[in-house]
UniProtKB/TrEMBL annotation:
Residues in HD/PDEase domain copies: 14-142
Gene label: yqeK
Keywords, sorted A to Z: Hydrolase, Iron, Metal-binding, Nucleotide-binding
EC number: 3.6.1.41
Protein's UniProt name: bis(5'-nucleosyl)-tetraphosphatase (symmetrical)
Signal peptide (residue range): none
Organism of provenance: Oceanobacillus locisalsi
Amino acid sequence: MDIENLKVDLKERLTGGRYEHTLRVTDTAIKLAENFGESVENAKIAALLHDYCKCDPLEDMKQTIESDSNLPDSLLSFHHELWHGPVASVRIEEKYGVTNQAVKDAIFFHTTGRANMTKLDKIIFLADYTEPGRNFPGVDEVRATAETDLTKACYQAARNTVRFLMEKNNTVYPDSFHAYNDLNQQVFGGIENG
């Protein structure tokens, strides 16, 4: 894949702020991949394409969810902010021929996480959460943890996200709960963690 041509496409497709966010996520993902022994190439491609559909019309994303058998219809019952990752995981194959399932999964789950996240899943999830332009309560703690412990940092990010959504009385997509529970077990090692 020609990265420079991809960046040109993304610059035309995304808003200025979203494009700059994408570049910061990519830089963060590359550093995490280098730190934790993951394919830098896969991290770079997944990070560049993670918000590929973020600026698409909602009706277009809805039609893709309804028509593609690889996407769960249940997405439509949750906030549309969750749609762009799964839709992008389908459209990048159509547009760029991306068939690497690990890359597609990292894009699909970058907003919600999931149980049994791969290292690449964790890197994209965390890079999106901690990129330098992000500024919200708890992000500095997650950034600091991400220096040495990828799984614990993902647990902190998942915990913060679930807590934030619940405090706002928002629904929480099931994969977010599954991610939290699985990461909690990985970090704390079992049911009785005090």
